[in-house]
Amino acid sequence: MSVDPHLLQSLVEAAPDGVVICDARAADRPVVFVNAAMERLTGYEASHFLGRSLRFLQGEDHEQEGLTKIRAAMQDGVSVHTTLRNYRRDGTMFWNEVTIQPLRDAAGTVTHFAGFHREGGDRLRLRDPAEKTDPALSTQTMLAYLRDDKLTGLLRRTYFDELVKRDWGLAQRESRRLSFFIFDLDCFFTYKETFGKNGADQSFKRISRVISGCFRRASDLCGRFDEDQIAAVTSGLDLTQASKLAEAVLARVRDLAIHHPRSSVSRYVTASAGVVSLVPPHDAAPERVYEMALKALRDAKELGRNRVVSRDAD
Q: What's the pTM value of the predicted model, to 2 decimals?
């Protein structure tokens, strides 16, 4: 079951620890998000953080071992856990226990850093060394929960959309071709009626794994688009190549031979696909291509399912 993105945002907002997200692509790594707990911890309002480097929290106290560790970790794109002397808005110093985790896009490039902050210097010094655990584990679990679809492991729709916007902008500037795919399982409503939610979920999970396995290039994106739909985006393929790739994906789904006794198409679960290829124009947004891909998908369904309908949007 998908989770409302607003619920996920509420989760972060309600977190007891301070959460800060910084843009890794800018030189000063400015803050782009801060939650209420961070405001309470420091005394600064969110507006004071946004667009600024977190260095202001150290005031003039920049000679700290923890800062050296953080700079090295950010340079290497790895997580780090340390303690800093930070200063609240009223000037009082506090020990800030901080965990920083890099956030990567589908190509593996670090785009942001997430920081988790709490007041805990004394607790760190009193802890038995034998009780130490890897702080990156819980952090990584939380980030994966926010980024990945729980059932399939594919990108959640909200995160997929954000990455598409990024790639769309790059393709506009570089006049690079993008191909959009939307796959939908045929007669899957009757499959759910026959095998129940658990059976349908397990089958959809297997199918998702097969589809995502066809989009393995570093620049490819693959996400859960709707309840029974999977979307993907590739670059550098013309319409013919994209159509052949979609046909190969449908063949892989058929090869799973998942029995479907009530399908009007086949004895096994099949899928249909809508494909659109274009060089993004400067006066259009990705939502336009979603609409075109969904229209192509509907046409594939009307033509009998278990097929690809593709369109060049140029």
A: 0.58
